[in-house]
Structures are given as C-alpha cells and as structure tokens.
Amino acid sequence: MEKTGFAVFKYKHTGPAGISDMRIKVCKVSAIIGLILLYPLFPLGIALLLFALGAWLTAPKCLSLGPRYLICGDRIVYYGNVDKLIFELDAGRLTLVPKGEPALLIEQEKFPTNARKSHKIAVNKAAKFSKVSQKLIERVRHASPMVELSGVASD
Question: What are the tens digits of pLDDT across the range 94-147?
C-alpha cells in the first residue's frame, strides 16, 4: 500500500510560505481573542495580536512531496502532467517541465543546513538535494513512465 503522507523538506523558494490549516486557525483564534481583550486587558490583547502576527509571518518555506503531486510555495505540480525532467547533478538543479505550465526549478543551494563549516554545508546540501531529487524522479516515473529524463549523471 502506498504512503499517503507528505515528505516535507525545508526549502528556501521565492514564493510565499505554505501556511497549514492549523496555523491559520491558531492565528485567527489568537487575533480574535486579542481584539476582544484589547480594551479590558490591553497588554494581554497586544501580546495575543503580536503572537498571531508572528505565527503568520514565521511560517516555514517547504517543499512537500505528496503521493501524486509536489507543492512548492504557491505552485502545485502533478507528477502525471510532467513531460520532461532535466537532472543536472553537477550543477545541483532538477527541472520539472509540466504540460502547459512554466518549468519548476529545484536548486541545491536553496536547501538550508545547520552546518557551520563550508565543506560540511556543501556536503549536507548535496545530500539533501540528492535525496529529494531521487524521490521526485521516482514519483514522477511512477505516475507517468514515459516521461523524458535527461541530464542524468552516472554514479
């Protein structure tokens, strides 16, 4: 049986952050309670409003790989609609070209890491990019086996 959950990876894309339903509910409830308490308990009302604003603005930017589609910011790419995959391991890029839509470029440099030394940063980003790329290629090939895959570097 196929896993139905999403594999989520931190990814510094240029689009807006994907905000979950739970985060939206927490922000709404905090803002409403903060507005209600603004007059009788001013400091608590301000604190709740600031909490709601902070929760909204600090939503993480992620790359979510689902069983049938990929979510990157405000873009959704269905694996079955991908015509071509361009995998450039040396350059650290994977390009998904869906039918009738602009291509989605996934870059190795946009994966964050907690490493401090430059050589470890490079290794961690390369490992994360390789892992995500292999999962994406596998899922796209599963959804549409006839997709064209080019630029594969030999292992």
Answer: 999 898 888 888 898 888 888 888 888 888 988 899 998 998 988 888 888 888
Identify the CA nearest to 71 among candidates 127, 139, 149, 152.
139
86 domain residue, yes or no: yes
Look-up of token digits 């596998």: 138
Rounded Cα gap, residues 98 and 69, in angstroms: 11
Q: Could you tell me if residue 110 is inside a domain?
A: yes
| 83 and 53 together in one domain | no
Residue with the two structure tokens 């989605």: 104
Within a 10 A sphere around the Cβ of 116, how many other Cβ atoms?
7
pLDDT of residue 1: 42
Query: What does the alpha-carbon distance between residue 63 and residue 74 come to, in Å, rounded to a whole number?
Result: 11
| Strand order across the 148-150 sheet | 104-107, 93-98, 82-88, 148-150
Residue (of 112, 148, 144, 142) closest to 127 by Cα position: 112
Residue 87: domain span? 79-150
Kindly report the pTM of this predicted structure: 0.71
Report how far residue 15's alpha carbon sits from residue 54's, in angstroms, rounded to the nearest whole number. Answer: 19
Residues 95 and 135 occupy one common structural domain: yes
